[in-house]
Design a protein that fits this description.
The complex is a heterodimer of chains A (112) and B (109). With 112 residues, chain A is mostly beta strands. In chain A, 0% of the residues lie in helices and 51% in strands. Chain B is mostly beta strands and 109 residues long. The chains are: A mainly beta (112), B mainly beta (109). The interface between A and B is medium-sized, with 24 and 19 residues.
Amino acid sequence: GAGVSQSPSNKVTEKGKDVELRCDPISGHTALYWYRQSLGQGLEFLIYFQGNSAPDKSGLPSDRFSAERTGGSVSTLTIQRTQQEDSAVYLCASSLIENEQFFGPGTRLTVL
Amino acid sequence: GQNIDQPTEMTATEGAIVQINCTYQTSGFNGLFWYQQHAGEAPTFLSYNVLDGLEEKGRFSSFLSRSKGYSYLLLKELQMKDSASYLCAVRSRWGKLQFGAGTQVVVTP
């Protein structure tokens, strides 16, 4: 497909475990963004990549959260020692610079 | 600080017009976006304004006044499928989007 894809679509984990979420952006999109959306809430910015570098990590809520991007393409968001408050839908978006962002379907994370 | 305000919910009947207002106070401005989000789905792009004025796109129009920190999304000839959450978002210099909490539009028969 030509859109942004994310995996897994759903993830249930136990408190304290680590999780990895994956995002495959639209081919050729240099910018990649991670957001999260808690139930009934707006989207919260987490981190932005331009190529493989992250000029803006200001939204990462704690040092348990990290993200990387390799080859200017795939990105992984890692949450260590998950907590119940991490439960949310994690959305990835990609764009050409200055253009609209296209969102993936999201990963619904549930921490028990 | 950053603050983006929009109403929580609006109800309108099929065929009517609804205007969703958004006011913002942000430290940087590089465009304002409107997205539509149906329950359980990802947001989809509706419109983009970077200069003052009205942008029209079929049944949807969006207006921006940068001096007033104000935008609105106008939905005309409402259809049942327009029932969704509408998200106002301001883009910063670096490209990240700061989202409002969203306006839930309910279209009734």
